[in-house]
Amino acid sequence: MLLTGRGPGAVRRGRAAWRRWRKGRPFWGGLAAVVAGAEICAIPLAPLKVMLQQGIAGIPSVLMGLVMILMGLSAWFAPHYRGLAGILTVLVATAALVMSNLGGFLFGTIVGILGGGMIFAWQPRPQPEPEPHPEPGDGANSGPGDGTGPQPGTGSTGPQPHQGPSDSEPSPFRPQPRR
Fold first, then answer.
1. Using one digit for the tens of pLDDT, what is the confidence trace for 49-106?
2. If DSSP codes are grouped into helix, strand and coil, which group holds residue 74?
3. pTM of the model
4. Could you please report the per-residue DSSP string of 27-61?
5. Residue 35: which residues within 8 A CB-CB, separation 6 or more?
């Protein structure tokens, strides 16, 4: 610590920055998609003792695994595309069940479907709105004697709701008579 000039506060700030980054995107769904894609990609590249017969079936497996990895990374680094990334991850994971050694021996398909669902379902947290600071004379602290609020005895309790159009006004919701 003495040589780098960093103290325990730098580690704390780094953890806080990592936590903010992770919570600002569908992190766990993207991680599941990346793990499922890597597993689907790795099965065709396994030794011959694990895979008895590979043939041309390895090409779709590797491509589907790469697409799932790409969708997981796009969920991390471009979270506004989470809808597309989630749907494509679920579709590719489901297609891998048929086209890629039972979807990586079912592990890749199950984890890919769960990850795609988490990516699709993730919603960003709304930013808290700052509370307005009342300025003097703006009516926030108005009382009955300062002339800004409703006066006692006037019967005014605030804005009255609109009663709707009268019979003389044409309404877009009411059929008009033909002339």
1. 655 556 666 788 889 999 999 999 999 999 999 999 999 999 999 998 888 877 778 8
2. helix
3. 0.63
4. HHHHHHHHHHHHHHHHGGGS-TTT-S--GGGHHHH
5. 111, 115
